[in-house]
Amino acid sequence: MEAIALVCLYGLASIEDIVTRQIQVIEIVMFSMLGIVINYIYRNQSLMSILGGVGVGVAVYIFSVISKEKIGRGDALMIMVTGLYLGFTNTLVLLWLSSLLAALIGAIVIRKYDSNMNYEMPFIPFLLVGYLVLLLVHYFGGIPL
Fold it and tell me: At CA 101, angle to CA 107 and CA 2, rounded to 5?
C-alpha cells in the first residue's frame, strides 16, 4: 500500500516539478495524511523510526533555508512525507541514492551542455527513480522496506 502511495506521490510531484519547478501543498498534505493512516493501520514503522524519517526531512528543510534554496523547500517537505512512509533508515538510503543519481546526471548535463554550476534540476524525479530502485532491490531480496 505504501509503495503505491509513494509512487503516485512521486509521479505526480515529478511532473509538476519538471514543468513548473513547484510542488502543490495540497498533494503534500493529502499524502501526509494518507501516510499517517497507513502507519496507523499497518504499523509498518515504529514511532521513533517515523519521527527519525521526518527529522531527516526537517534537516533538509533547515539546509534549504540556510543555503537559500540550493535544494528546494518543496523537496524537503517531500522528504518529510517520505519519512512518514519509510522511517529513518530507508529515508536516509533513499535520500543518499537520489542525491547520487542527481549528482551523476547533473555532472553529465553540465559537461555535455557546458552549463554553469548554478544549473537547477528538479529533484523529485530523482526521488521517484531512487524509490523504484529501492523497490527492485527489495523485490530481489535486498534491503527490507
Answer: 160
- Using alpha carbons, select from 103, 105, 97, 66 the residue that is nearest to residue 79: 97
Residues constituting the chain: 145
Tell me the Ramachandran region of residue 43: left when phi exceeds 0, alpha when psi lies from -120 to 50, beta otherwise: left
Distance CA 145, CA 125 (A): 20
CB atoms under 10 Å from CB of 133, counted, come to 16
Mean pLDDT by 10 residues, the chain (145 residues): 87 92 90 90 89 96 92 93 94 96 90 74 94 91 70
Single-letter residue type at 95: L
The helix/strand/coil state of 89 is: helix
Single out the residue of 28, 27, 39, 30 nearest to residue 1, CA to CA: 39
